[in-house]
Amino acid sequence: MATPAQDIAISPNRLARTVSNTLSVSPTATFHSPPNSFGGAGFVRTRTTGEKQLKPFDTQDIKILLLENVNESGRQKLAEQGYQVEALKTSLPEEELIEKIRDVHVIGIRSKTKLNERVLREAKNLIVVGCFCIGTNQVDLEYAAKHGIAVFNSPFANSRSVAELVIGEIIVLARQLGDRSNELHNGTWNKVSSGCWEIRGKTLGIIGYGHIGSQLSVLAEAMGMSVIYYDVVNLMALGTATQVPTLEQLLNEADFVTCHVPELPETKNMISAPQFEHMKKGSYLINASRGSVIDIPALINASRSGKIAGAALDVYPSEPAANGDYFTNSLNQWAEELRSLKNIILSPHIGGSTEEAQRAIGFEVSEALIRYVNSGATLGAVNLPEVTLRSLTLEERNHARIIYIHHNVPGVLRKVNEILGDHNVDKQITDNKNEVAYLMADISNVNSSDIKEISDNLEGLSSRILTRVLF
Ligand SMILES: NC(=O)C1=CN([C@@H]2O[C@H](COP(=O)(O)OP(=O)(O)OC[C@H]3O[C@@H](n4cnc5c(N)ncnc54)[C@H](O)[C@@H]3O)[C@@H](O)[C@H]2O)C=CC1
Ligand SMILES: O=C(O)CCC(=O)C(=O)O
After folding, report:
1. 179 with 92, same domain?
2. For labelling alongside 25, which of 15, 62, 227, 406 has CA 20 to 30 A away?
3. Does one domain contain both 260 and 398?
4. From 229-233, 349-353, 452-456, the region with the lowest mean pLDDT
5. pLDDT tens readout for residues 85-109
6. Taking a C-beta distance cutoff of 8 angstroms, is the pair 263, 288 a contact?
7. 75, 211, 260, 349: the active-site residue
8. How many angstroms does the Cα of residue 366 sit away from the middle of ligand 2?
9. 3-class DSSP state for residue 373?
């Protein structure tokens, strides 16, 4: 038998074939018989660490759809696992998405693809969603959890990029640099200082002091700004920043107001006509969070009246699906009016679009997906309880990992353990989030015929949402 070190050296194709030592049962997937290698002399190890690599079923059977130009680092990592990966540069119209999603076990998206109930209902084989971004508002997280679909994101890999963009925008707005640049592009020299300012000594008001807001706070202070912030949570101030108790106070005091809150019902139109009233005359507004946070017609009025001296928007209620698409009134009815305003920076949702951020997100999210597909660990999942078990080792032959996602109702553990009762349950862990519970158990003394029986019995329980057996 090959030693683990020798196994590492085998060709990728052979590796992909030979690691097919596990199976998974989803509500609709057909049962995959354990390969002959299960428990036999041909059992192949893929790591040198003594850790046994579990695989859900033949690796080449795992189908992954990546949309919205997910970074190559992520695509490559997933492909290296032997999975079938299809990567598209754009998001898809809903009907096309529904056609495609029926077939896949894993989908990777960014902020544009809407995985709503209508779409997820058709995703019969889907076990996991990777949001290659921070925001997860584009996914119906509750529906996904109730159907055993885990959702992962990258909680802070692009935070710094957004914070740096905002610093740039503060200076560009204060100096009317966008307008000057446009004028000169059009052949007009217009050297002015009226209404142009240094940012030193000005007050930055940050709404939402999370990963991005707090990072921005540090950068802004380093540039000589005073920072105040408003957040629904009481949070430790960095540097000499100060938390203010109300949004109104922040709006009254800030020269620059910047929004870094998630898309929630409570943050919809958080800055609308009454809030513009509270802002200082000649102040500036920045939004690189979500398009729903600012009432754009109210912003257009505030700009036309001179209440605000400028604004920078990176996000919009409706955003084009692909590069090259038009940003016109057919997309947002006020688009052309917005485009005509003075000292308004409009960027195409690029807050997190840097090489550094996209590469890091590609690695981070693809790793979470691989971990989930191969070992069932939910660490970092945003909609399921976070559950993990230490890896099975190479010595643990004829062990299987049971993953049972179920409704959180009384008596389930007893029934599950009755089903697992003929085997030694080496380790078991369970946790719940809202109405959904996630159970992982490693059992030993399992042979290939037991696996189908265990799986069928678990699938027969009324509490079952999704069963997977990895070995
Ligand atoms: N333009 C872009 O490319 C990007 C945009 N984003 C957006 O930025 C948002 C913020 O990102 P992070 O800082 O990482 O999120 P975070 O979750 O770390 O911080 C959000 C903060 O907002 C606070 N908050 C929630 N509701 C609030 C309310 N009603 N009023 C005041 N504060 C409230 C929270 O308590 C939290 O401190 C994301 O949800 C995402 O939508 C994120 C990355 C890139
Ligand atoms: O880069 C993207 O596509 C989305 C960035 C973003 O808005 C996020 O990370 O939430």
Report:
1. no
2. 15
3. no
4. 452-456
5. 999 999 999 999 999 999 999 999 9
6. no
7. 349
8. 16
9. helix
